[in-house]
Design a protein that fits this description.
499 residues; mainly beta; Pdz3 Domain; 3 domains; seven-stranded antiparallel beta sheet; 33 strands
């Protein structure tokens, strides 16, 4: 199935510790501007071949690896039956999103008036998709993407020797985009699983899959970056590569130079819907932990801290007095959640988790999610110019969000903000106390991204309930002021240059 590009604007939003992934059946995720290891088999080293015109330069030759492990890569075909979109209305306004709405079969006939309000039985129409997967145990256990098989009524696995099997879906975890399926077979070829923690940026990698249904196709490239966090994919620190990945490659393996699987191909970045040089794979270490839980319990448990975080840039570091931009800035704390009970506050910067530095905010969600609910997390935080340690007993991951609807102003002076206090009804709707409603933003505030309808909750860590509170905070600031802003269901610290 062809992917539908997801276009992202630049709203004021914070990255929560975890989010849900969703995609059409069998589609490759596309973003525009997210057990026990099987027994090792014999290693298939990569051969090198002289580069044309330069006998001293060599390029990798993956032919031995493809021959050795290609048979363990499978093509997955899925069928889901969904109701036709007919609703008994024969008007021209009844088109679906593709402009091909189902029409009343009795429209434009003398019988149309009799069937206009008559209950219609919606026929089931098959929706087909396909992807890739790879065999991790000789008795038929296969790993693939959740978005390939989630919701499928029929799953067919096709091997390279043209044998076909009906597969059973063992478990699906949409949050990490991992699925485990099984076929009833023995003595199957298997891949060799590696350690994704050992991969390095710049090393060669190989993908095998079924792009556009062309089974057992091999493409190669290099690792471009590690630990990428994508929108709505906070559980997974993706491997970014420049390996050509297209629809149908979803769920296929990413091999390193030693013939070991280090990732599962999952998503691409594209403005066209097809490959444009940026692809993302799920680290195999993450996939194995998820698949083991799916096999043993049927679901995946994740630790929950109960905060919303954002990156720390230089302006925010200056505002909070940090020696350098590092860690994860807490922009909101879930009321009654694990962090709230432990004393974590909005404005804290998490510097370490269990004595391991949190260099960027992208690292924290996946690290917390890997911890078991009920376990203790030791956090080192930065608060009011100094560090302190806090121990948090983690909860179990679940989402919680708030919402609000917005409606004499005071000028924010050097910031270019026109604000007023929220009415009691607006505070109730926004689920907050105090705060200033932005009625107009210009100058430095507009340049920083503030806009009408935002709610300013605090300035440099101090709550603001009046325009005078904000003006006082501005006068005390040097260079930048960190405003905690709520927009819709998200909170975010915004550094604003003091004019």
């Amino acid at each position: 199935m062809n992917p539908t590009p997801k276009k992202y604007s630049k709203p004021l939003a914070a990255a929560a510790l975890g989010a849900i992934i969703a995609a059409p059946l069998g589609a490759l995720y596309t973003y525009s501007v997210r057990a026990q290891a099987p027994a090792h088999t014999m290693q298939a080293p990569v051969q090198t071949a002289p580069a044309t015109g330069n006998a001293q330069a060599v390029l990798p030759d993956f032919s031995t690896m493809v021959q050795r492990y290609g048979p363990a890569v499978v093509n997955i075909q899925v069928v889901e039956k969904v109701p036709a979109s007919y609703n008994g209305d024969d008007s021209d306004d009844n088109d679906d999103d593709n402009g091909q709405g189902s029409q009343n079969p009795w429209a434009n006939t003398p019988f149309a008036p009799f069937f206009r309000n008559f209950p219609q039985q919606q026929p089931q129409v098959p929706v087909r998709g396909e992807g890739s997967g790879f065999i991790v145990s000789a008795d038929g256990l296969i790993l693939t993407n959740a978005h390939v098989v989630n919701g499928a009524k029929e799953v067919t696995v096709r091997l390279t020797d043209r044998r076909e099997y009906q597969a059973k879906v063992v478990g699906v975890d949409t949050n990490s985009d991992i699925a485990v399926i099984r076929i009833n077979a023995k003595d199957l070829p298997t891949v060799k699983v590696g350690d994704s923690r050992n991969i390095r940026v710049g090393e060669w990698v190989l993908a095998i899959g079924a792009p556009f249904g062309f089974a057992n196709s091999a493409t190669a490239g290099i690792v471009s970056a590690l630990g990428r966090t994508l929108p709505d994919s906070g559980y997974v620190p993706f491997i970014q590569t420049d390996v050509p990945i297209n629809p149908g490659n979803s769920g296929g393996p990413l091999f390193n130079m030693r013939g070991e699987v280090v990732g599962i191909n999952s998503q691409i970045y594209s403005r066209s819907g097809g490959y444009q040089g940026v692809s993302f794979s799920i680290p195999i270490d993450v996939a194995l932990k998820v698949s083991h839980q799916l096999e043993t319990t049927g679901h995946v448990s994740r630790g929950k801290l109960g905060v919303v975080i954002q990156p720390v840039n230089q302006a925010l570091a200056d505002s909070f007095g940090l020696p350098r931009p590092e860690g994860a800035l807490v922009s909101s704390v879930e009321k009654g959640g694990p962090a709230d009970r432990a004393g974590i506050q909005t404005g804290d910067v998490i510097l370490k988790l269990n004595n391991t530095p949190v260099n960027t905010s992208d690292e924290l969600p996946a690290d917390i999610a890997e911890m078991a609910p009920g376990s203790n997390a030791n956090l080192q935080i930065w608060r009011k110019g100094g560090t302190q340690n806090i121990e948090v007993k983690l909860g179990s991951m679940q989402e919680k969000r708030t919402a609000f609807n917005s409606q004499s102003s005071h000028n924010g002076g050097k910031l270019g903000l026109a604000v007023r206090p929220l009415t009691p009804d607006e505070q109730h709707q926004a689920n907050t106390r105090g705060g200033l409603l932005v009625e107009r933003a210009s100058g430095p505030a507009a340049e920083a991204g503030l806009q009408q309808g935002d709610i300013v909750l605090s300035a440099n860590g101090n709550k603001v309930a009046s325009a005078e509170d904000l003006r006082s905070a501005v006068e005390k600031s040097k260079g930048h002021i960190a405003l905690l802003v709520q927009r819709g269901d998200s909170q975010l610290f915004v550094p604003v240059r003091v004019g």
